[in-house]
Amino acid sequence: MSEPKVQVGEMAPDFEIVSETGEPVKLSDFRGKKVILYFYPKDDTSGCTTQACGFRDTYPTIEEKNAVVLGVSPDGVKAHQKFKTKHNLPFTLLVDDQHTVAEAYGVWVEKSMYGKKYMGIERSHFVIDEAGVVIEAARKVKPAESVTNAVAALG
Predict the structure, then answer these.
(1) Which residues does the UniProt record annotate as the domain Thioredoxin (predicted)?
(2) Catalytic residues
(3) How many CB atoms lie within 10 A of CB 4?
(4) pLDDT digits (tens, 9 = 90+) for 29-78
């Protein structure tokens, strides 16, 4: 397996993409707060819903730790809006339809299903401190473990 692009102790790659509201969001806008940046394959699929609802259910704890959650997938604005509304998600979903952010973090990878190979998001999360430094990088995570581990990494 290749080394992940983004390592603990490094500055998290900055980016600017749009949220589910169509507004541009920059990672650097969150300096001074911790950020759980998580990547998931597709809105409203079972694992992605488990992961998103896990972050929703622990959001009060996340906020107490001076942190925010940003969910990233290739889905568009409308799909994100529907997913956020359906599951009452209190955090921002980001549209990475060109997968530039996923590529910058090394989580746009070759996958295989039923013998077919295709490119897609590797479920992962990165916890970033107030200065923009990665304090946890977890790839190929299980949905529920991702939530537990990311929240624990906030300290």
Answers:
(1) 6-155
(2) 48
(3) 17
(4) 999 999 999 999 999 999 999 999 999 999 999 999 999 999 999 999 99
